[in-house]
Amino acid sequence: MKKGGKLIVFSAPSGSGKTTMVKYLLEQPELNLAFSVSATSRPKRGDEKEGVNYYFISISDFKKHIKKEDFLEWEEVYRDNFYGTLKSEVERLWAEGKNVIFDIDVVGGLRIKKKFPEETLAVFVKPPSVDELKIRLKKRSTESDDKINMRVAKASVELATAPQFDKIIKNYNLEVALKESHQLVANFVGATVPSSEEE
């Protein structure tokens, strides 16, 4: 892979608020970010759109891409539930002169950091507690209790990987966490945060 812009990885357990942070950062023009859309073998949920939320591909196609080494990173998150980052996606965004931001799970995030140690800022978003995480996931009311318990169990394992990341942002107060993430990414990509943010 030819090298291009910077890579910014946001990883966290489900319900930590990383997706909200990534969306916020994408709206900051001075950061020059573009979102890396992951590929997945799981079916679409709700009003998800192809090429916006994910690239939806069949399990057999996903496995073909793995064989051809088309992925920067991939993982079987749950049985037959694959997620990955296509190299072509990152190359496409780099060709547009963008810095690439990822909203991916902990394992994938650390794999990208390992492959591109100099170009990658790996950020772990930490929820106040596992109990708080459970409350947030229940509030979403998109999943069964079993699925929520599975995510909470996974969260405990994921929290243990936090020290392997470059930075940990504690999302106890969303507004504070957003400001912190903005400043962190701006410093990494060499951008200046507009002065209204610097209260």
Can you lay out the helices and strands and say which pair or pack?
Elements: E1 7-11, H1 18-26, E2 33-35, E3 39-40, E4 55-56, H2 59-67, E5 71-78, E6 81-86, H3 87-95, E7 99-103, H4 106-115, E8 120-126, H5 130-140, H6 145-159, E9 167-170, H7 174-189
Parallel strand pairs: 1-7, 1-8, 2-7, 3-4, 8-9
Antiparallel strand pairs: 3-6, 5-6
Helix pairs in contact: 5-6
Question: How would you describe this protein?
Answer:
The chain is α/β, with parallel strands linked by helices and 199 residues long. The protein has one domain: Rossmann fold (3-Layer(aba) Sandwich), CATH 3.40.50.300. Helix content is 40%, strand content 21%. It has seven helices and nine strands; from the N terminus they run E-H-E-E-E-H-E-E-H-E-H-E-H-H-E-H. The protein has helices at residues 18-26, 59-67, 87-95, 106-115, 130-140, 145-159, 174-189, and strands at 7-11, 33-35, 39-40, 55-56, 71-78, 81-86, 99-103, 120-126, 167-170. It has a five-stranded parallel beta sheet, with helices on both faces. The radius of gyration is 17 Å and the shape is globular. The protein starts with 6 loop residues before the first strand and ends in a 10-residue tail after the last helix.
